[in-house]
Amino acid sequence: xxxxxxxxxxxxxxxxxxxxxxxxxxxxxxxxxxxxxxxxxxxxxxxxxxxxxxxxxxxxxxxxxxxxxxxxxxxxxxxxxxxxxxxxxxxxxxxxxxxxxxxxxxxxxxxxxxxxxxxxxxxxxxxxxxxxxxxxxxxxxxxxxxxxxxxxxxxxxxxxxxxxxxxxxxxxxxxxxxxxxxxxxxxxxxxxxxxxxxxxxxxxxxxxxxxxxxxxxxxxxxxxxxxxxxxxxxxxxxxxxxxxxxxxxxxxxxxxxxxxxxxxxxxxxxxxxxxxxxxxxxxxxxxxxxxxxxxxxxxxxxxxxxxxxxxxxxxxxxxx
Length: 320
Known about the structure:
By secondary structure, this protein is an alpha/beta fold. It has two domains: 117 residues, Rossmann fold; 180 residues, NAD(P)-binding Rossmann-like Domain (Rossmann fold), CATH 3.40.50.720. The protein is built from nine helices and twelve strands. The protein is elongated, with a radius of gyration of 21 Å.
């Protein structure tokens, strides 16, 4: 059995120590690495298992592929079963890897936007001791809407719980209870819930159901002090509508780690929008992220090789 690890700009090449851990978990298997920039079908034709993202146009030629494990929490672009050579392929993702670093990123954005850090940073660049201040807002006692209650959404709750916030959670299956958040609502209740929110945190995947979830209509009914944070997918927010909402002071601020389009091109109006922080899809990046990815893959690999039930399996119909 052959296992290939594909690395790219987001999923760095594994160290000898981490590759060794994979080999130890799969005795008798051949384990190799490959760069996504230079990879071709011949490099993967004999691979049974791939850890990483195979370029979609190659999938139809990989008849030997039995399982692909993505190094990401999302599966965008990989959930059309017709792309694959056989419809029995297993697709898993690295959910459980990113909750801690991304939730820290989210809280950092919330604090920076609520306390005017970007405003004062600009003053600092011109050596200006500025006694005026933007509108400050407390996170303490605020109402936080969390859209998507997987690992990331749950970690957002844990990181913010000490602030004494009220939490409203949104998920696809509201019949499924959450360990911590008791107020769980369906997306059909979003409009009536938005006027309650001081902060909206989007952790949902990009799907047909979530595309364009936030546009002008949604921004018009949000509080003027509301701050929206998106670490899900850029397609969930209408970028032009968000730009207008910020510049017209319909809402107080926005923090984006994902954008539409992505990368955000030079000259796009979002760059100059009022009270916005944009980071280039790096919220998951820490020194421990790669190690966490590998640990989840190894755990799944052991289950796969021993015939045990796996987890983090992507539902091709649902798209995540």
